[in-house]
Amino acid sequence: QHYYITNNLRNIMGVQILELSPDPQQSKKIFRAPTGDIVCLDRSPELRGILLDITCVNPVGEQIPLKCEKEKAMFTLKSAGPYKVTWKMCVKPSDKNRNSVYVVTVLADPVITNSTDLTTLPSLKVDQIAAQSHLTKCCGDIENWEDVFRVSLESGYNTVHLTPVQELGVSRSSYSLHSHLKLSSSLKLNSSGGYEEDLKVLSDHLQDLHQKTGMFFLTDVVWNHVSVCNRDILEHPESYYNLHNTPNLIPAYLIDRSIREFSFTLSDSSEITNLHSFYKRLSNHLVETSRKLEELYKIDAGKMFNSKESTTDSLDESLLKRSHIDDVVKQLWQVDYSQSEYGGRVDMGVLRTFLSNREITSIPEQNSQIVTAISLFNEFVAPAAAQDVISKVTTAVVGDVKYRFIDENGPKHQFGDVPLVERYFQISDISFDEEKELDIYDRLDAERIKTCNGWTTGESISDMSKTMAYTKREIVIWGDSIKLRFGNSRQDAPWLWNYMEKLV
Fold first, then answer.
1. Which alpha helices (H) appear in 188-249, and where do they start and end?
2. Do 187 and 142 meet the contact criterion of CB atoms below 8 Å apart?
3. What distance in Å separates the CA atoms of residue 131 and residue 218, rounded to the nearest whole number?
4. Phi and psi dihedrals of 503, rounded to 5?
5. Can you tell me the distance from the alpha carbon of 360 to that of 332, in angstroms, rounded to the nearest whole number?
């Protein structure tokens, strides 16, 4: 579904009029209005006289009451964000539209205001913001900020966007924070207190600049990661992604470690400039890792016969329409990454139902066909799946090396000055030889292996426990930052939740 944003709301004396219509194109629009305005839901001519069932949900997912007058319904945009209006017609059961449900989105734009004095200085609507970004680490002492930002003001900007104001990590990247709860020493706040007092000193200073210049100031917060040099996080392994709490990352780590090992076999830059030769050498080096993946992907038929079988209530009907049991095995295949070999899993209940639907009801005959299908999977599919991963990894690494060391538009690093590629995982206070001795299936060792943060040009990662992006090297990795894990609730990572609450 593709949406486009529109301002096509009629504004009558401060009330935004949205005319509901059964036109399917309306659901593809996002209607904008300022926060604080009232939205009146009117009806198109074809809906007048028809009873409508209308609900509205605010940006935090709460249903809000509607004030109804005759054939109109009204609500107030009390906070910024999307409001979802859902409506349907209450018509006769024979009407073709009786089951049609329509959704309209109203986006309440944020308004930036001066929280201390709303009378003397103006507020800014989102369309009025003209912001210039500044790297906080380059702004120096806050006593000089008026001169620094005066340039922005006289250049026509009314808002300054600051990168995080906290102490940075060892890489000095503006978003890799050594501590979320310590402001940068470069600000020279001259405060004797802790984080809260430092924050107040900074806030008062910016408020002062706001009063003098009328400019607004925004800064980023970083929830998702922390610098590798942060020591507090090491005491709370549930707060970051590691091989114990996210075992599907084990193949990614094995590949990462093998690439690191391969980099030690290279002696000079001539060994990476011939990319075809480099590709072949890397592929050969990763053969052993490919075998490990193959063994992990295989299915142990004996274990499957002893596993719990699903009930027919939970079956995916599309699986039962497959033409051959081999296809069903491939479709059902999942991996238990906590195993070092034979981690492949299939649901035996589905396989038996599939065979029963084809009038193969004898248990011995079913077992025979299942064993044959699993054997074929182990012989052909598992190796192919492993090789597909290694092929994607090799291509990704070669592309990364080409960009880092060879491309004219790349950073053109000198061989030996930086790692061949950034690592996807970090382990503190340990040599590479010691790292290779770690037992990744032991909890304490697995928790020492921290996953780095990054971004992907493909689909966003909504579930780290299922993603293959790390395994296939599809992440543009930030080797200086550890990816934080909040879980689904405070119980999953209590220390991290408490820590981040102090940030704001």
1. 195-213
2. yes
3. 9
4. -60, -40
5. 19
CA 202 to chain centre: 31
- Bridge pairing between strands 81-89 and 67-69: unpaired
Considering the entire predicted model, what is its pTM?
Answer: 0.83
Q: In which element (H, E) is residue 482 found? A: strand 475-483
Structure confidence by residue, pLDDT tens digits, 407-462: 999 999 999 999 999 999 999 888 999 999 999 999 999 999 999 999 987 777 88
Please give the Cα distance from 371 to 270 (Å, whole number). 50
In terms of C-beta density within 10 A (0-12 exposed, 13-18 middle, 19 or more buried), how is residue 448 classed? buried
**Amino acid present at 123:** S
Model pLDDT for residues 284-322, shown as the tens digit of each residue = 999 999 999 999 999 999 999 887 776 555 567 777 777
The four Cα atoms 43, 49, 53, 59 give a dihedral, to 10 degrees, of 10
Q: What pLDDT sits at residue 490?
A: 95
Amino acid letter, residue 358:
R
Query: Could you give the CA distance from residue 134 to residue 144 in angstroms, rounded to a whole number?
Result: 14
Q: Are strands 29-34 and 4-6 parallel, antiparallel or unpaired?
A: parallel
Whether 225 and 311 have beta carbons less than 8 Å apart is answered as no
* Confidence label for 118 from pLDDT (cuts 50, 70 and 90): very low
* Average pLDDT score over the chain: 89
Q: Is the separation of the CB atoms in 16 and 38 below 8 Å?
A: yes
Note whether 169 and 481 are within 8 A (CB). Answer: yes
Residues in the chain: 504
Q: How far apart are CA 504 and CA 181, in angstroms?
A: 10
What is the rounded distance in angstroms from the CA atom of residue 337 to the CA atom of residue 244? 10
Buried/exposed 472-498: b ≥16 CB within 10 Å, e otherwise: bbbbebbbbbbbbbeeeeeeebeebee
Question: In angstroms, rounded to a whole number, what is the distance separating the alpha carbons of residues 504 and 482?
Answer: 21
Cβ neighbours for 46, distance < 8 A, ≥ 6 positions apart: 21, 22
H or E element at residue 83 = strand 81-89
What six digits make up the tokens of 210? 């706001």
Amino acid at 120: T
Q: At what angle do helices 363-376 and 348-356 cross, to 10 degrees?
A: 120
Burial of 169 (0-12, 13-18, 19+ CB in 10 A): buried
More confident residue, 97 or 431: 431
Beta carbons of 423 and 452 less than 8 angstroms apart: yes
